[in-house]
């Protein structure tokens, strides 16, 4: 959290400068507010220690003065740990540009390629995902291309995206499980 141009961050006695301390405290306060404002489903995916998570959940039910005290308590708990993984998870939720969002964009890209380029893109997709059932995908693509405005064509396009997503997530989980 220290700036490169802030050479006086740590003084002669090994103490942190007031400027860098104030900046770090502001970052922690902003992080605390962001974490407390998260929905429970999002909060479960943030790498918080158990005591901090418990304090955040309690704070979400407090009002006024009790909430302010609890926010300060959470800030104190966060000062004692490395906040970078927590800050990264919060940024991911705030920007919507996390790993999952990138994967979804990739799946949508494949669907558009399959619908526009036909059999050439299908052959490339099957090479990229060997477990794909080419015949099922070909049928979904043809129906979606032939009848794009009908209910059948729209359903086929949605099923195509679901199939691509299932194959992509299976491949991602297989690569995560493989030893490195």
Quick structural overview:
This protein is an all-alpha fold and 180 residues long. 73% of the residues lie in helices and 0% in strands. The chain is built from 9 helices and no strands.
Chain-wise SSE layout:
Blueprint: H1 18-36, H2 40-43, H3 50-60, H4 64-79, H5 84-95, H6 99-117, H7 119-128, H8 134-146, H9 151-177
Helix pairs in contact: 1-4, 3-4, 6-7, 6-9, 8-9
Q: According to CATH, what is the class of the largest domain? A: Mainly Alpha
Biggest sheet statistics: none
CATH superfamily of the largest domain: PSPTO4464-like domains
Write down how many β-strands occur, each being a DSSP E stretch of 2 or more residues: 0
The coarse silhouette is elongated
The end-to-end distance, rounded to whole angstroms, is 31 Å
Return the domain count: 2
Architecture of the largest domain, according to CATH? Orthogonal Bundle
- Kindly report the average pLDDT value: 84
Helix segment tally: 9
What is the CATH topology of the largest domain? Diphtheria Toxin Repressor, domain 2
Runs in which pLDDT lies below 50 for 5 or more consecutive residues are: 1-8
Percent helix, as a range, is over 70%
Order of helices and strands: HHHHHHHHH
Helix-and-strand structural type: mainly alpha
Computed over alpha carbons, the radius of gyration is: 24 Å
Share in β-strands: under 5%
